[in-house]
Amino acid sequence: MKAIIISIGDEILIGQVLNTNAAYISEKLNGVGIEVSRILTVGDDEYEILKAFKEYYSRYDIIVVTGGLGPTHDDVTRSAVCKFFAVKLVSSNEVRNNVEEFLKKRNRKWSDAAENQILFPAGAKVIPNKYGTAAGEFFERDNKYFIVLPGVPYEMESMMEDFVVQFFRDKKMDRYILHRTLMTTGIAESELATRLGNLDNILQGAKLAFLPSPTGVRLRITISGTNKNQCENRIQTIETYIREKANKFIYGVDEESLEEVLGKILTERKLTIAIAESCTGGMIANKITNVPSSSSYLERAVTTYSNQSKIDLLNVPKNLIEMCGAVSKEVAEAMALGIRQNAGTDIGISTTGIAGPTGGTQEKPVGLVWIGYSDANKSSAQKFNFGDGRIRIKERTSQAAMEIVRRIILKIE
Amino acid sequence: MKAIIISIGDEILIGQVLNTNAAYISEKLNGVGIEVSRILTVGDDEYEILKAFKEYYSRYDIIVVTGGLGPTHDDVTRSAVCKFFAVKLVSSNEVRNNVEEFLKKRNRKWSDAAENQILFPAGAKVIPNKYGTAAGEFFERDNKYFIVLPGVPYEMESMMEDFVVQFFRDKKMDRYILHRTLMTTGIAESELATRLGNLDNILQGAKLAFLPSPTGVRLRITISGTNKNQCENRIQTIETYIREKANKFIYGVDEESLEEVLGKILTERKLTIAIAESCTGGMIANKITNVPSSSSYLERAVTTYSNQSKIDLLNVPKNLIEMCGAVSKEVAEAMALGIRQNAGTDIGISTTGIAGPTGGTQEKPVGLVWIGYSDANKSSAQKFNFGDGRIRIKERTSQAAMEIVRRIILKIE
Question: What is the C-alpha to C-alpha distance for residues A409 and A387, in angstroms, rounded to an integer?
Fold first, then answer.
């Protein structure tokens, strides 16, 4: 089964928006054994969209279209689809019910736009949209699947997951493309490659990709075949080999975030945590609170940007800041200790550094960061230099701070 | 002049990597008046690449190809190009000189890979690569431009900038494509469309696109023509018209973020701010501190997840929480007042709500949020319902909180 993704939207063609939808859809289709051969982007232009449908319909088994299903005049996908299949738009009760429920939940009134959104191509199956008013369209014809989804990422994603992926999973096609991603942090791509050495003998046709990002390198193993068990065993063998070489840097698998992993560790061990941030400016708290139920282990977090707030909220002695400077080992330790004691938690962590772009000196350059840690046994701080780029420095510091907690709790190293 | 971008690479087709190159190239071509009509991605497969060249060569004036020029076995673009134009690979002295210089600068030795990289399609012009060994290829034939660039982003970007953009700028094609984006928040796409009404008379061939996201709808005006001044005036007229209808929802232009806009407003007026977050869990602080120099107006921020931390850090009376609940108008107001007084700032803002997925009740469902505001004149709180999705609720609440501050300072409404 070969697929093409057709993305519709001027915003992609002019470079305003990255085509994240195509990447998401590719990955999900891969997950059910479907290979994506092409990704095409065309503009919000009915003639261009129709032309693309005509060119590609005969050549692929699965055509996934995203974008241009909204209620405004530049949304022309629905009418292009109707012309292509020579069907009419009809008022759909199923879509009406969904849209009514959606608006009701948000205390919004029925409008002309809503009335327009319930018009649906005759003969298509409705793909319900939990997060918006644009219904998805599912055509099964000529031994092909023609699927139309909105372009708003979270709407499209839930429709892919709940409907499209489910549909192809239920069809049980005997073709498997398996990926496993090992999430590493605290080690550079080249060091990781050296540590793993030559992998030809262990990979034997499987693929290993190194995907670097500011928070770490993802190692992605890919294998395809017709026997699922065999594929899984091969992946397991490769994973085991990699873990022997680099286990301490691997904090999770398959796009798990470090904050999710840390949340599980804290929950299992019934530990509580509090955070005192300076250079990360709330990023650690924000990441940790992205995880559901984080309120059970995060007691409080503070962003102490001013010296006074470090004194008020963390009991950092004023003369310590004057003597050592706010960006110092001593202040990082005092911050971690202070937040832990004030919050009454098991663990306290802290960050203080120069995020830039200004404020750096020869002695304390942009990128210099101290991360503090405190528990009942000890308070300590580690020095890092995270290069430049304000947000990259915040990202790297946040990841390193959470990794310090993970390694200390799990007694790694 | 119509262009197509052909991206080559399995990593894009499996969703491992976003096609940032296509976005970059589109934006640069737009900048010299060239419209990109399609973006196509195909895999590292010579047959597929050749097929794409054959399909599209006759239909576009400019074909820009990226990716697959490296020295390894999966790089097949160069041989596909030779087959397509029926030319041979020949050893190029110009490329040899460039590669030698590149390696010398990095203290790297000549290798078999380098020897391979100097083979170049006969008849093409060399696009020099400052940051790598893969030369770009430039064909000018049949009144068309066929341009082949490597896929490594920073190599491709410098070649686009130094050679391709320069080439088309020198051609002075007297064609302009101008964009202007108005950033709105606090209004749904459909309501915005209703408010703007029928725009045909004012647009007259210009395009207006609605781009919704969890934090607001961007309105993008696009116009193309041969007279730059005229285009600029037309955009200005349309912007003025839209502002007459919806000015209070427009916080910025051209991808400016609300936190940047708010930062400017606070700086100009020499106002300071402090933040007390519950349901947003540090997201507002994180956004605000992404802006350089935010330390000049953000005194402190706290994430008070526990009731005790609301009492300790914000002086919220214990019995108020017991009587009204932590998610209430009264507590939101007390939080905003408390953080302002403790921090000694001009403004205090607060958030308290149910971010879910658990913790909702019939009376206080997931998505219910109170946002508090306090300055020397008043303390108040507003109620919102932001639907579901934990991170989306955090996003929407953060944006709404910053927008409340913007509107109060600017006395909007």
Answer: 28
Beta-carbon separation of A295 and B301 below 8 A: no
Decide: B216 and B395 in contact? Cβ < 8 Å: no
CB contact under 8 A, B303 and A285: yes
SS3 B374: strand
Chain A contact for B311 (CB, 8 A cutoff): no
What HEC string does B65-95 produce?
A: EECCCCCCCCCCHHHHHHHHHCCCEEECHHH
Q: How far apart are CA B282 and CA B71, in angstroms?
A: 46
**Whether pTM exceeds 0.90:** no
Domain B2-170 is found in CATH 3.40.980.10: yes
What are the counts of helices (DSSP H) followed by strands (DSSP E) for chain B?
17, 17
Residue contact A11–B41, C-beta within 8 A = no
Q: Architecture of A2-171 per CATH?
A: 3-Layer(aba) Sandwich (3.40)
Contact A72/B193 with Cβ under 8 angstroms? yes
Q: What angle do CA B72, B73, B75 make, to 5 degrees?
A: 75
The domain B258-409 having CATH identifier 3.90.950.20: the answer here is yes
Q: What angle do CA B127, B130, B131 make, to 5 degrees?
A: 120
Helix (H) or strand (E) holding A182: strand A176-184
Which tens digits make up the pLDDT trace of A2-24? 999 999 999 999 988 899 999 99
Which amino acid makes up residue A23? Answer: A
Class of domain A176-253 (CATH, top level): alpha beta
Distance CA B45, CA B42 (A): 8
What was the ipTM of the complex prediction?
A: 0.84
| pLDDT per residue as tens digits for the range B63-92 | 999 998 877 666 899 999 999 999 999 999
Q: How many residues does chain A have?
A: 413
